[in-house]
Inverse folding.
């Protein structure tokens, strides 16, 4: 079980900065993600390098935030590496957590097989008139727009997937939960899991309601796995595997990204 900070005093002179970064992850990241994604959709209609540019922006944003959180943690006086998950696992997941992780893996395998066969892409996207916006992807297909089409995009997407596993677990599980635990003081594990789920789901608001729910559930599972094992290692590996599974989806089953109107 992760030994989280019990009060904000543990962060010492870095306490204010820690709270600011945590608030940004909860409230600012959803706005930044929405703006970044909408700009990407607008460029996707006419710029063949839109995906590579978007991947590059994601890498700068995620590594920048991860480095900022790392510097804040290094400035904390009484928050050791174990309190933010930067250690080897100290225990196995609880049986319930292990079962949920197994179900997630089954879902990931099943959804990947469905995507590979084009099953989840058979329904035509809803058409909409040009007056409703300039963006290339129809509602419900925003996530598909992010998937790589060319060999160069696939290589860069691999880096993005690994980055998401490392940086997002550090930010939303290791760092964020340490700050939440310090501010709230003595929250039970289930409450921390719920907070982590909400924060992670909101960070993916650009994916729509279904995306918020799905990523929120996954965020909660990662948080439970982290709290049970005391380490970010397993959540990082699971997170990266979930994102990198999209590399198994052949380009031929993906929509071409052009507007449906």
């Amino acid at each position: 079980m992760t030994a989280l900070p019990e009060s904000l005093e543990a962060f010492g002179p870095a306490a204010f900065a820690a709270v600011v970064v945590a608030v940004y992850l909860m409230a600012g990241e959803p706005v930044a993600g929405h703006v970044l994604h909408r700009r990407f959709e607008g460029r996707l209609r006419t710029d063949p390098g839109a995906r590579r540019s978007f991947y590059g922006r994601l890498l700068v944003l995620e590594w920048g935030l991860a480095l900022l959180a790392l510097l804040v943690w290094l400035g904390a006086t009484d928050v050791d590496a174990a309190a933010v998950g930067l250690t080897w696992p100290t225990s196995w997941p609880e049986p319930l957590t292990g079962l949920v992780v197994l179900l997630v893996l089954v879902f990931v395998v099943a959804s990947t097989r469905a995507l590979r066969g084009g099953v989840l892409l058979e329904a035509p996207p809803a058409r909409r008139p040009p007056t409703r916006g300039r963006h290339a992807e129809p509602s419900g297909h925003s996530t598909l727009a992010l998937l790589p089409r060319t060999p160069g995009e696939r290589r860069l997407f691999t880096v993005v997937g690994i980055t998401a596993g490392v940086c997002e677990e550090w930010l939303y599980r290791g760092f964020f939960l340490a700050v939440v635990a310090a501010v709230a003081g003595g929250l039970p594990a289930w409450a921390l899991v719920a907070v982590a789920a909400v924060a992670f789901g909101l960070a993916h608001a650009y994916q729509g309601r279904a995306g918020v729910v799905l990523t929120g559930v996954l965020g909660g599972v990662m948080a439970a796995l982290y709290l049970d094992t005391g380490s970010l290692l397993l959540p990082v590996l699971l997170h990266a595997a979930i994102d990198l599974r999209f590399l198994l989806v052949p380009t031929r089953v993906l929509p071409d990204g052009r507007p449906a109107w």
Remarks:
- DSSP finds eight helices and no strands in the chain.
- The longest helix spans residues 151-184.
- Helices lie at 15-44, 50-74, 95-116, 142-145, 151-184, 189-203, 208-229, 233-244.
- Residues 46 and 258 are 9 Å apart (CA to CA).
